[in-house]
Predict the 3D structure of the following.
Amino acid sequence: MRAAVLHETGQEKLEVLDDVEAVGFGPGRVRVRVRATGLCHSDLSAMSGALPQPAPFVPGHEGAGEVLEVGDGVRHVKPGDRVVLCWLPACGVCPACRRGQTQLCLAGFMNAGTPNFRRSGGDVFGFAGTGTFTEEVVVDAGCAVPLPDDVPFDVAALIGCGVTTGLGAALNTADVAAGSSVAVIGCGGVGISAVQGARLKGAAEIVAVDPVASRRESALRFGATKAVAPEALADVKQQVTGGEGFDYVFEVVGRSATARTAYENTRRGGTLVVVGAGAMDDLLQLNMFELFFDEKRILPSLYGGGDILRSYERTIALWRAGRVDLEGLITHRVPLAGINEALDQMRTGTALRTCIEI
């Protein structure tokens, strides 16, 4: 079967091969025919080495498709069922799951160290335990979440990561207060979803910050009240908040420099939400006096900061009601053979989300 493979960490292009085999099928596992997958910035971060991932590997973790085969003990799906792939399934029994913090379950991370694929040359891993830039993938049963018939595969793929992450940051982690002021730094698919979440919560002012003009224009369509380049943030902070700073600032880039900017633009007593996935060696510097004196809350948000399956259901309900726009996030479409074109679209910022149709 075909799959897009990164041979070595640090390479910028993927090779689409037709000699890849999905492996690992057995009890408690599900084989899925991937129909659509989104390209998330985390895929680029794994390719560059900013996020840890054994190589060679198949990137992709934001996908949806049809069940081809189920192993012994799998009861919640059957062959022919439509599913969205969850890269961080909850085991249900660990301390985090028992506390209701299923997004902190480590069971899914353990999957990243087990090969999902094989070639004649040896094992190939799947990014984040999935690897959706492929025609088929074998995953733990918990990764295959039943998908209602009315949700298209391309929309479902976005729910699998980017939309859940961005919406959840605003709805779960920050719990944005009605009438508040919000800034979102980084307005790709995840950042735009955070904008939509802040709008749903009734924020009075939502300022989108991004260096790419087309993304700023998109942010306005999705609910931002203002959209500016990073160099104009200080001026809009003065205009909107009188220089005090925003009630909530979302950092959706994953870099210490933008996190520091986000902190400085959060008002005293306000909330900084860290959404972007950054590198382990990229350190954020804060001094002990400002931490004490400013009393700003710093809230990391992993995968939307809430129960993932409930977040999926909530997003689908909001989409059905016309309260969130998911189709509009898909600005480009390419076949699997055009995956490197999609990577370029992400790197240059020309795409909010590219859908890879398989």
